[in-house]
Specification:
This protein has 448 residues and is an alpha+beta fold. It has 3 domains: 1-36, no CATH class; 40-182, Adenine-n6-DNA-methyltransferase TaqI, Chain A, domain 2, CATH 3.90.220.20; 228-411, Adenine-n6-DNA-methyltransferase TaqI, Chain A, domain 2 (Alpha-Beta Complex), CATH 3.90.220. The protein is 38% helix and 17% strand. It has 14 helices and 22 strands. The chain has a 4-stranded antiparallel beta sheet with strand order 2-8-5-6. Strands 11-20-16-18 form a 4-stranded antiparallel beta sheet. Strand 5 (103-106) and strand 6 form a beta hairpin. The protein is globular, with a radius of gyration of 24 Å.
Length: 448
Amino acid sequence: MVTYSIIKKSQIEGIYRLDAEYYQPEYLSLMKSLKIIPNVELNSLAFVTDGIHSSIDYDNKSNIRCLSAQSVQDNYFDLSANTFISEDQHKVNLRTSLKVGDAILSSVGTIGNCAVITDSILPANADRHVAIIRLSANKLSPYFLSVFLNSKYGRFQTLRESTGNVQPNLFIDKIKKLIIPTIKNHREISELAEKSNDMILAANLLYSQAENLFLEELGLKNFKPQENLSYVVNLSDVKSARRADAEYFQPKYKRMVEKIKKHNLSLLGDPVTMKKGFEPGSNEYQDKGKLFIRVSSISKHGIIDKDQKYLSGELYQKLRKDFEPKIGEILLTKDATPGIAYVLKEAIEGVVASGIMRLKLKENIEAEYLTLCINSIVGQMQIERDAGGSIIAHWKPEQIKNLQLPIFPKPTQQKIADLVRQSHEARKKAKELLEEAKRKVEEEIENN
């Protein structure tokens, strides 16, 4: 079925856009609904700017976070990249120094994610790939703005106004012109978004408690890997490892392995069976259909909607028997960003890409405990050592099988696993609250 729009010349004057995508029927319909109710341009409610224009001076010794487009998710921040900028650069960029209540919008790559700055994020600054939206006092809640921009009525505007194919950009002058509706129950919607944000913080705290318990049991709570400028390696070690790159033999890896050897160790390949995903080729990717779960879709907290791709229903039916993951399986990335592990909690209709391994437990080990081991410094340092040295990292199946992990007594495993499960439940509740808030925004617009 072909869809099309007929546009009058008067409708495009002053817009400077002639591409058909801009005038697709869905966009025109959403804009019509939005403009029926009272509305204003964002520029009248807030000061809008972007982040630091110059190259970021990263400094891991600093405590000042650097937020980028990848940091901004759907009403929360993903701080797993843990990047910081130098104090000197922060001091000379007061315009971009973040404050409580700032709404941050991703403007490059994955366009349109929005979240609100809280005390837990600060001190922080931002790079040029995000927009900083600082609302005027008492004009609107930043949480309502975040919900709206993450809803379909905000998303279509940010996607529509972005330009570029390989890496889309949403420029500041377009963000200032975004249409924001005036909604009666915006306070109720704002409260739901705040509760959602609080649940994310609670989820993060629970996961940190699980990590801390794990590291305390190992005696690694304060372990800080130190890089050696020079070191000596025996030829026999080079032959045994079948590696000659200097980075592989960094003493920091050996020091960490020596610490965990005091505990009962298992190779990852012993308690699990492994099965690789499938790559149908980019020509099979669609904008709608059944989930195609790629490496970029996996986080240690779940499957995320990041540049999500889909497959046709017909291809999915052919592949699902061999490549659809099951509840309880561990999804483990092996390419690009190797070593991200997640236990699948809910049934999904989709298949996994070849850059992901499906791990099925065959021994009585807590799955959430095992994934935390892999995601912890214990797993990540070994993965960094094994998969390093390439432009695009690849963690080979044999290396995955030989990952050394400490296996605690069952009661300790259960304590750690319970904290991880509680974290997941809090994150799930946060998502439900946010979806309720989005639904209320959309209903308010559509019922007028």
